[in-house]
Fold this sequence. Notes:
Strand content: 25-35%
Helix content: 10-25%
Low-confidence stretches: 1-37, 109-184, 194-199, 286-295, 475-480
Number of strands: 35
Number of helices: 11
Radius of gyration: 29 Å
Oligomer: single chain
Amino acid sequence: MRQRSCLPRLLMVFVLVALVLVQPTALLARAQEATAPPQLVTVVGVVGATLRTGPDGATVAVGIVPQGDVLTVVGPPQTTSGVVWWQVRTANGAIGFLPAGLLAAAPGDSGAYRAVATGEQPSAPAAGSQAVAATPTLAANLGTDPAGVTQNVQAGPSSQVVRQQPAPAPGAPIATPATTVPVSTFKPPRVAVEQRRGRSVGIAQLDEETAPNGRRMGAGRIVVGFKPGANQTTRLASHQAAGASAAVRAGLPEFAVVEVQPGTVRQALAAYRSRTDVAWAEPDYVRRVTLQPNDPMLPSQNGVNKIGAPIAWDVTTGSPSIKIAVLDCGVFSESSPYTPPDGGKGHEDLRGKIAPELEKNFTNATTGVDDWCNHGTLMAGIAGARTDAEKPTGVASVGFRSVLMNGKVLNDQGSGLDSWVAEGIVWAANNGADVISLSLGGSDPCSQTLQAAVNYAWEKGAVLVAAAGNGGDDQVGDPISDAPASCTRVVSVGAINQDDSRASFSNFGPPAAPRVQLAAPGVNVLSTNFVGGYSTVSGTSPSTPHVAGVAALVKARYGGTNQSIVDRILSMADPIAGTGTLWTNGRINAAAAVGPASCSPRPKVTVAASANGKALDVTVSTEGGGNALRYVQVGGTSGAPANATLKFPGTVGSSEVTGKVLYIPMTVGTTLTFQVTRANAGEPATVPFTVYDGCGAWQSFAGGGASAGF
């Protein structure tokens, strides 16, 4: 009988996801009208508030609004189960509901906030604030008030402008500019429709271009800081000279975000910087959110952490448009009649991840697509369990936001036929699988049936990943290897322990016949099980979905062909001990495969050293979003150490490569340490070395003179 496990229900936590601010809406408001002008509110009290499609905590979440983001109220308050919800529009145009208790009136000139009481209208704009219909003039877009307070322009379908300016004397007309130049307002963002949690959601896209200094910036967007005393007339002249088409105050009165034609940023920057009223002007650089998922079991997931998946997630969390087909003995999905401990449908960590039309049984099993051999669900959890969900559940998956396909090609005994597997491969390819994960095999060569199916899926653009097998075989020169791992165009994966040594059960072999190409975590890997709980699993089977999840992340980041995805994964693997003899390319590195958010300008590598008795402790750390530290090379082109002995943590992670030593940390991260001691006391000691991170090589050295304190 299945054991029901009772897991504690965890409190909701919110995760910061960056939203860019500037989007439509302003209504013509007059004092005598009953309709109030649009109210601006901001999120307070939490790191981020979940934006929902309806006024109910159970409705679909469409994003996280960070603390401090300014929103426009677009609808009256609604009360559900005693909670008051406000309908708001975010800066990127998304419309949804937030609880009133998490909102406060946006700060006025005083910078003061006040909580929005339940059912209470947010505070009105400062005195004199008006909403005025937009006009197609630069002056209307960039501001006209004589006090020099930049107006807040909000562009969108209504093409209207909200002006924040001093109140005129009673009956006095609003000031108008002396000079106007016809231009348009800020261009509305592009919106892409994605399937998230079973619904089509419009997601605003951020257009980017490369700034003159090589960094990534918003297309045509510049931030200008004006000097104190710069009035509106001189500001307008600055914008006109730079060719700006629109501007909006950004945070402080002296800041303005302006829009110019993409490709003209260099000239516009030069125009702003040449003016005496401008303190500085720079591209509007792209910043990317740093993500730490809230899944409570993530700290215990040695595989996910070992390959640097959390660092990769700082750059991409994948996409629900990317499909990973898990071809196995079924998955405990929402279509299962079995009731898990929480009384829901399917495993709670897999809910919403597998659409019913993306499940099919190719075997003789009478249980449909459900998992009755406790294998497929474990693999699905590693590749694509629900991660960083609004209600934290259990584990995080490498593929994060990727969706899953459940192809049952092994029966409830865990056995299957080539024809079943081949059918599953073809079905997955025909239904848009980007990655096909095959944690199965047999001790015989690749059959023509399997190879034909593999070829078909490959031509359809799928990446195929398969387990190298658990026979523990040294397959040097042996043409026999577990299939489908031995099929052409399939990435074969062996298993390693936490110390990067080969798991005793894992098949292995050099670039010859078996082609065990990659190593991935395969011992005591924590994942979802077929009764709704969590279990550890060992084998080359769990190694495989680690690679499948990374392939999905790379696809989401770069797109490209299946060949380019495979090439990147293989080339970015870490050359751990045994590379070239046990496996061709080493241990998979999710962070390196996804790549840093940007290498231009090159992120800094910091080297710090401190005396520790008779030794020198050296710490190396990398900077930059998604930039993992891969390994340190001593010797070779770096030069040989002089009067120094090195000690690296552990021994398995070090490898000798033709006159040089590579130290590869056993867990992908952003920091590593090693120790230097003098071979001969009283003599200088130096250690030149090269650090390799996601952006390439960085040369440095450590050591000290004869009188240094170690």
